[in-house]
Amino acid sequence: MNKIFGGLISVILLGIYVHLIYVAVDVANCVGTAGCKAYVAAYFNDGMSQALSVIGGLISALVIAELALAKPGDAPGTRVLDSGASTGAVRTVAVVSVLFVLVWIGAGLTAFLVGLYHPTALPVLTTHGQAWLGLAVSAAYAYFGLSPSANGGGK
């Protein structure tokens, strides 16, 4: 039962994260367009900025941790299931986990790209996008089991 609630909370936080990115992108695009009054910079308030930073960090930490614990080639998240879990349960967890990671990638990449085109329109979005890029690289390193070595190569 705690796995279900944990998963539900994670999905809810991801939804809030995507919503905040969506609103921030609307604001950045509006601020970057002459004459646009629909989403002024003040629309994305301090609470939204703080929530984006905190929730974005939590989501990124979860993605990196799951990818670090998953075996390369295996879907993230399936490790939490019991060894006797049904095929349906394994498939459901795999699909939800992969969608979770893909949504995180999409939202973060959007923040990064919009931040490149409108770097001063909404600084919190630009900063978040740049931080996401570093975290995405960390996630890839974690999933593929790569680590820096003295000779510059991976494992």
Written description of the protein model:
It is a single chain. This protein is mostly helical. The protein is built from four helices and no strands. It has helices spanning 2-31, 46-69, 87-117, 123-144. The radius of gyration is 18 Å and the shape is elongated. The N and C termini lie far apart (38 Å).
Summed up:
With 155 residues, the protein is mostly helical. Helices cover 69% and strands 0% of the residues.
List keywords for this structure.
155 residues; elongated; mainly alpha
State Rg: 18 Å
- Element string (H = helix, E = strand): HHHH
Quaternary structure type: single chain
Helix-and-strand structural type: mainly alpha
Helix count? 4
Amino- and carboxy-terminal Cα gap = 38 Å
Number of strands: 0
Write the layout of secondary structure elements.
Layout: H1 2-31, H2 46-69, H3 87-117, H4 123-144
Helix pairs in contact: 1-2, 1-3, 2-4, 3-4
